[in-house]
Design a protein that fits this description.
Elements lengths: L1 E3 L4 H16 L7 E3 L4 H6 L7 E6 L2 E7 L3 H7 L2
Parallel strand pairs: 1-2
Antiparallel strand pairs: 1-3, 3-4
Length: 78
């Protein structure tokens, strides 16, 4: 899950990278959560910074990257 907000510069910076990654990994879902619109979801997942990426498998968080860190995201998606 990509936790984002419209005004976030790093969120906008990373968006093309995520679109490209989604094309390369068609078997992976890349949901985007705007925390201004879905505050309860961000609260439930204890999101504290933008942009935050959580890797969820079978309903459980298996990894997390905070910030527009393309290298970490490349390594994490595994």
């Amino acid at each position: 899950m990509d936790f984002t907000v419209a005004w976030c510069g790093p969120c906008r910076f990373i968006s093309p990278f995520l679109a490209d990654l989604a094309k390369k990994l068609p078997n992976v879902t890349f949901p985007k959560v705007d925390i201004n619109e879905l505050k309860s979801i961000a609260t439930n997942w204890a999101v504290e910074a933008m942009t935050t990426f959580m890797f969820i498998k079978e309903g459980n968080m298996v990894d997390k990257v905070v910030g527009a860190k393309t290298d970490e995201l490349r390594q994490t998606h595994g």
